[in-house]
Amino acid sequence: MRSLYLYIIIFLLIVSTVNPVYAGDDGLYIVTTFPFLSDIASNILGDAGRAESLIRFDRHVSTYELTPQDSEKIWLSDLFIYVGYGSEEAIGQYALAIKDGRGVISLREFLRDDIPTIVDNPYFWMDPMKTVILVERLANLFGDLDPNNREVYIRNAEEYIGELRELDRWIRDVVNEIPEENRILFSIRDSLRYYAERYGFEVVGYITGGAGVYEPSTTWVVQKFEDIVDRNVNVLFIEYMEKGTTLREVIETLADEAGVETVGFIFIETLSYEENVTSYIDMMRRNTLILYEYLNKDIVDVGGDSPDSPIFDNPVLRPFKYGFLVRGFLTLMVVMALTSLVGSFAVLRGWSIFSDALGHGAIVGLLMAYLLGLDYYLGALLIGLFIAFSVGTIERVTRLRADVVIAITFTSMLAIAIIIISNIGGVNISLEDVLFADVTAVSIEMMWRAVGSALAIGSFVILFRRQLLLYSVDPMGSISLGIRSGVLHFLYLILLAVTTVSAFMSIGAIPAIAAIILPPAASFLVSRRPKQFMVLSLVIGIVSGLTGFYASYYLNVNAGAATIMTSVFIFLVCVVIYIFRKPPTPEVSR
Amino acid sequence: MDVYIRVSDLTVSYNKNGGPIFQDVSLEFYGGEIVLIMGPNGGGKTTLLKSMVGLVYPVRGHVEILGRDPYRDLDVRKRVGYVPQIMDVNIYAPITLWDLVSFGRYPHLKLLDRFSREDEEIVFDAIKKVGLEKYMDYKLSELSGGQLSRGFIARALAQNPDIYLLDEPFESIDYVSEQVILEVLKDESSKGKLVVITEHHLSELEYMDRVILFNRGVVANGPPSEIVNDEMLRKAYGGAP
Ligand SMILES: Nc1ncnc2c1ncn2[C@@H]1O[C@H](COP(=O)(O)OP(=O)(O)OP(=O)(O)O)[C@@H](O)[C@H]1O
Ligand SMILES: [Mg+2]
């Protein structure tokens, strides 16, 4: 990202010497972030100008990467419009940098006086009458920028406002047919608040109120579950932009647990050719029809399997009240055991950075999986194996140190990912989100995958522990002792790849990397014997997971992060022990 | 006497374009003898030993160990106790001297086998033979250089191989320990095993059955009394590359 700024500066230097052609002659040229904004702007401009969005249809804003062509569009535009929240705000920041602050508006600032609540909740356009305000103000602004066409803009705006009023009436009519007691909304983001206020719905809940990155805590998820059950929410709505994110997993998990339906998709930010939602008005109509279809039904009682057994009053057992938490716990334990065991060989061999490489390299895998329509797990795994194979080969052929080879591999992977993403204008999954999976939302399938790979890898490691140990501490010796080191070398890298992928698909990338490195590193400091080293590493891993899980529940923090912090704490204790350790004396005997 | 190692017309090169380290070397080693390979730095002694354990692949010719090809048959490598000149071991790992020596037993253990009482005794015995029983619980990083070298020799002993290939094993080992270890090796050869040592000192000649002067090829090969004289040594060392 930083290099982008550098690029922008170079670009500005070049551009400022070529004298850009201003769009002034053939009307206004407006560039926006979201497609629905450029749709609105186009309706005001009519034939007197042109509007274009940077984020394309069917693409997720968080995967948007600025390209030189887009920078040029921003530079050439008479006005750049963005809303100013979440990752979309970053694009606005680029625009401000490129245009040196002139001709850029953030709607959150622009409409602050008209819609004061915009500060807390940006999704004002979900109320068509608020969009009318935007249209009126933009028409005036366009008129100021291009006085010759002022009349045209005002006329177009009036016409469009007419359509918006009609849309508003239509929505009202449709909503009126939904029984009043059914008008309750639960979705991933707090995206329907303005809509609810205008048309008489109640927003019962949402997974996150914020618009940016979100890491759920166990308590929070439990709270949401209880809301669903208490308020008898029969359908949970999924925003189209959350199609491929962890938050969707969270809401699906909750729905499964409560035995209710999820509905995809409602459209908030993204327009879609795939789903045939190609304008702002389309979007509002589609959402209304979906709400009508799913809410205009008889309400059934949401039971959920919330056992009110007294054993759950015990603080130790309380976190296990719900099935999804038991799954999360089991997955976390299994993954921590696996990573700390497999990671111990990586730490011995100096390969621990490999997990880091995979964490980054897997973005390419997820991207490929998305483009080819494969399973994400499979995509990440394939790229993991590819990285394992290339690292293994380059290391053997060049005899460069493993860390160098690994660093080369993963930085190039990351570069490839960014090249693809910027070229296709982003994808409709949030890659960070896929990587930041969370244990509180582990599906049954994901849990079995984790358990399955743990069993397979665990038994392999235990069976070949001697060969692995010998190969990791004395590679040359293992060759002369007749071990098939070539095979072992690749097998181990494959194990490491599978372990890392299972870990980050279930507990998230950063916790996964930490889980592979931290417990063995802590154990390394205080262990003298291989067996002790491995057992202690396993214990540290499991204790960290256990502490992380309870901390997540009782302290209301993210489980993955709490697990890392426990490992870090244990690591620091081991550093202290290491500093004050007693040197051995020759009298010691076995 | 049985031929334990047969090297026939062996040519070894590290890279395709560079010239070979040595060409068309043929040698035989027999069970029950101790052989010293002597020669200047860079003469190719290490390369010769490595090609015998399968660490360097020959360009031409072949090696037979106990009648088998060590490049194809990995199991035969288990019958060779090799002590490298430069150890590539992570000495900071949580590995004690005991663990290092017990690696020597690994070739004998099947996947599901546990480390038996007998294995433990063999390991302990090997450590005692190199005089390190007091240091068994030391991590490798807590040992001196010479103690570590002795540890590697103990590992080869614990392996209980038919053939010992020791690449300058005494480089950092004190005189007394060297004598002790040579006695152990003498004992092993009297059990019918082959011991091959590379070295460029003359101190241990009395233990040797045969000396091979080696400098990019075999310069001389025979009993110490015939081989080790000024003329031969000048011939071998004078032409050092
Ligand atoms: N891995 C390698 N790649 C390229 N050349 C090598 C390699 N190892 C050794 N050589 C070259 O092969 C030649 C023989 O080296 P070798 O190690 O066999 O000698 P040596 O007789 O064991 O020497 P010393 O007495 O120093 O141990 C040297 O000239 C060296 O430069
Ligand atoms: Mg050498």
Question: How is this fold's topology laid out?
Answer:
The complex is a heterodimer of chains A (590) and B (241).
Chain A: H1 2-18, E1 28-32, H2 35-45, E2 49-53, H3 68-76, E3 79-82, H4 86-98, E4 104-106, H5 107-110, H6 128-145, H7 150-176, E5 184-189, H8 193-199, E6 202-208, H9 218-230, E7 235-239, H10 246-258, E8 261-266, H11 280-295, H12 323-349, H13 353-372, H14 376-398, H15 402-424, H16 431-435, H17 444-463, H18 465-473, H19 475-480, H20 485-506, H21 509-526, H22 530-555, H23 559-579
Parallel strand pairs in A: 1-2, 1-3, 3-4, 5-6, 7-8
Helix pairs in contact in A: 2-6, 6-7, 7-11, 9-10, 12-17, 12-18, 12-20, 12-21, 12-22, 13-14, 13-15, 13-20, 13-21, 14-15, 14-20, 17-20, 20-21, 21-22, 21-23, 22-23
Chain B: E1 3-12, E2 22-30, E3 34-38, H1 45-53, E4 60-65, H2 74-77, E5 80-83, H3 97-102, H4 117-129, H5 145-159, E6 163-167, H6 175-190, E7 194-199, E8 210-214, E9 218-222, H7 224-227, H8 230-238
Parallel strand pairs in B: 3-7, 3-8, 5-6, 6-7
Antiparallel strand pairs in B: 1-2, 1-4, 8-9
The structure holds adenosine-5'-triphosphate and magnesium ion (MG).
Adenosine-5'-triphosphate binds at residues 14, 21, 39, 41-47, 85 of chain B.
Oligomerization: heterodimer
**N-to-C series of helices and strands of chain B:** EEEHEHEHHHEHEEEHH
Number of strands of chain A: 8
- Calculate the terminal CA-CA distance of chain B, rounded to whole Å: 35 Å
Helix fraction bin of chain B: 25-40%
Alpha-beta classification of chain A: alpha/beta
Low-confidence stretches of chain A: 18-24
Bound molecules: adenosine-5'-triphosphate, magnesium ion
